[in-house]
Automatic annotation (TrEMBL):
InterPro entries: ATPase_NBD, ROK, ROK_cs. This is ROK family protein. Belongs to the ROK (NagC/XylR) family. It comes from the Bacteria. Pfam families: ROK. It comes from Streptomyces solicathayae. SUPFAM superfamilies: Actin-like ATPase domain.
């Protein structure tokens, strides 16, 4: 009998990616479309349907038993709807029902993109073999997800572990979510860049004012760029330590574009974590870079839908 597969969708503001994924995390077929994020909701859905149709044209489609979706959020898994901040045409959009119809009535599981990344890291990445983990996506925003007692903990709506909107500065700047001093408002890529610019950092001749450009300047020793990453790292450390104090964690895994800064983020992050995570039951918490890479969204969507082998995962070497 052919191996059962899961169809995975990774939906963001830039791209809609799809894949057929086997039980060991092998990606057998891929499809991709740009997200028409500024168009109406039905136009966006047509792009999703095109991705599914391309997957359905593959000979292995008959072996697909379920569909997993990792979507930019907010999502509401209990209702099967999504309202991604970066896709204005989708507000309380019934994505689960539409994908169920487009996939021939197969069961559909929806999670937020941070939860999907967490599922991928626990299945095939840096959190493999750990029973209690927090995984973070640090990019334009800051998302996350939790593994507790060896299982993905999605919460009722699929948003559990959203560390980006934990407040770590009671008198901090207003956040887009409506709160103040959130981790995302300090550690998100655009906010790192804005902090550096406000404190005197200037881009090179190419005019690049992204967080990646600030990271490059930090690697070159620019003190303002280093200070911007130091501040972001402290915010992340405070959020991680608070989460660990609540639920007890073995490991925190950090991925996303900002994590690509490497040592200029991870060195102050680990140093700050030692200052914040001081209780005996959180003191041994480690922080490591993510390993699942650009396929994390697809692998995580597949894992959330029940894709992994049920054999216990071995710790990563």
């Amino acid at each position: 009998m052919p191996t059962e597969l899961v169809a995975a969708l990774d939906i963001g503001g830039t791209k809609i990616a799809g894949a057929l994924v086997d039980r060991r995390g092998g990606i057998l077929v891929r499809a991709r479309r740009p997200t028409p994020a500024r168009e109406d909701g039905e136009t966006v859905m047509r792009a999703v349907e095109e991705v599914l149709a391309e997957l359905a044209a593959a000979p292995r489609w008959a072996s697909v038993r379920a569909v997993g979706i990792g979507s930019a959020g907010p999502v509401d898994a209990a209702r099967g709807v999504v309202s991604p901040v970066n896709i204005p045409g989708w507000r309380d959009y019934p994505l689960v029902e539409r994908v169920r119809r487009a996939s021939g009535g197969r069961p559909v599981t929806l999670v937020g993109d941070g939860v999907a990344m967490t599922a991928a890291e626990h299945w095939r990445g840096a959190a493999r073999g750990h029973d209690n983990a927090l995984c973070l996506v640090v990019s334009t925003g800051v998302g996350g997800g939790l593994v507790l007692d060896g299982k993905l903990h999605t919460g009722p709506t699929g948003n559990a572990g959203h560390i980006g909107h934990v407040s770590v500065d009671l008198d901090g700047d207003p956040c887009a979510c409506g709160s103040r001093g959130c981790v995302e408002r300090i550690a998100g890529g655009p906010h790192i860049a804005r902090r550096a610019l406000d404190n005197g950092w200037r881009p090179g001749p190419d005019g690049d004012v992204s967080a990646a450009a600030v990271a490059a300047a930090a690697h070159a020793g620019d003190p303002v760029a280093l200070a911007a990453f130091e501040r972001a790292a402290r915010a992340l450390a405070a959020g991680i330590a608070a989460t660990a104090a609540l639920v007890e964690l073995d490991i925190a895994v950090v991925g996303g574009g900002v994590a690509g800064a490497g040592g200029v983020l991870f060195a102050p992050l680990r140093r700050s974590l030692r200052e914040y995570a001081t209780l005996s039951f959180v003191r041994d918490l480690t922080v490591v870079p993510a390993l699942a890479g650009t396929d994390a969204g697809l692998l995580g969507a597949a894992a959330a839908a029940g894709g992994p082998d049920r054999e216990p995962a071995a710790p990563a070497a």
